[in-house]
Amino acid sequence: MKIRLLAVAACLTFASNAQAFEWADDTISYWYGPYFRMPGVTSPSQPGGSDVGMNNIEFSHTDGFKYGTNFFDALLMMSNRQDPANSTNHQPQGAYEGWFVYRNDLSFNKIFGTDKFTFGPFSDIGFNSGFNWDAKNNYYASGELAIQFGPSFHIKVPVGFWQISVGAYKEFNNDGYYGPTSFHWTYTIGSSWNIPFAIGPIPLSFQGYLNVIGPKGNDYATSTKTEVLLNPRLMVDVGQLAFGKKNWIEAGIGWQYWYHKFGAPTSLGGAIQSTPFVQATFHF
């Protein structure tokens, strides 16, 4: 209950800052990858994990306010029939999954009105907190709620941004076989970046994120492992290239690698995911 109240409080904080944005960026993205995997989803021909084609629609909001930044992301993931929805239908459809992420990053330089937290490789140091919420309609019927908090470090880059955060992580989830699970507190390491550059007349940006979550106890009889999720992408500013309008339409390619997906051991088929993807993003 306390965890849910924290999530609600974070949403209220986000809403209260809405009237004081110094800047904001809202995007809608579509991306597709052919080789997603799900722990436990295997076939006789693919015992290491069935390749799942997945269409994704994503809304993201990022803003800056007086004391830092907010980030909100809503992602709808639509699997093909290799990852079926939990249904009695004789012609099963692919599963749907919804992910929601919120992060608030407070700037110590802004809060204390100083530049003392700009030194060495750091442009700022702050405090990052937020939550994840997830639900899926497959056999596992996941229902994740996770919170995390800890210090954040902004790395100096010529243009764009690069942030690294470390902290504590607590996850609650649901198992379609055994019921609700409360995992142990563990550590998390995260990084996100967006570095614009150009090759000749082509405006590009190197974007992405990295998430590491430590072992979080037992998923009933199975010990969880350290999971690593890496999602880099190379995007072309199509709006600037074709229409002379920066930061409007982007398109590009990326790669998502997930080791020990959801903390599952490699002995379980589908615990290692590696897929290329294509993406198009519209800023509005």
TrEMBL record:
InterPro entries referenced in this protein's UniProt entry, alphabetically: Channel_Tsx-like_sf
Keywords for the protein's UniProt record, in alphabetical order: Signal
Domain of life: Bacteria
Segment forming the signal sequence: 1-20
Protein's name according to its UniProt entry: Nucleoside-specific outer membrane channel protein Tsx
Organism: Paraburkholderia unamae
